[in-house]
């Protein structure tokens, strides 16, 4: 919203400056009024030029910052995605063992705790970026579902629970796609792993 307000303000100021210049060139009485009030004309024109310059520089700096942060946010999201994938694999392997109270369940819960800690740490950085925020929402939903389904079933998963979690994880994979696209092609292999 702040970005939209900044752009609207810049467009308004630039349009005002253009209107003043066109009126000065084409309307004689307008030009005569500004000639009689030279101090006012000088102050108004100086403020408009300053405002246009400041808003343009502000937009350029903001765009550069967004571009620089886009890759950083993508990397953080991909690290969270990697932990989410490890958590899902641990849950699947624990459920496949059929040992709800065994070592596999403990490993799955440990992976889930690591995912929860990562979500808490990465959330502030991911929240400001719309694509990263969508990814964050999907991972949070998936994480909550894992805990509720896993606890309800004592570490084993019924087929319908497994299918539901599989569908939810595919939403996480879809949400991470736009973030993965931000990375240079050479770096994608660092984060792509077995699904």
Could you write a compact summary of the structure shown?
By secondary structure, the protein is mainly α. The protein contains seven helices and no strands. The model has no long low-confidence stretch (mean pLDDT 82).
Question: What can you tell me about this protein's structure?
Answer:
This protein is mainly alpha-helical and 195 residues long. The chain folds into two domains: 2-62; 68-191. It has helices at 2-26, 28-36, 38-97, 103-127, 130-152, 159-180, 185-191. The two termini are 36 Å apart. The protein is built from seven helices and no strands. The longest helix is centred in the middle third of the chain and has 60 residues, at 38-97.
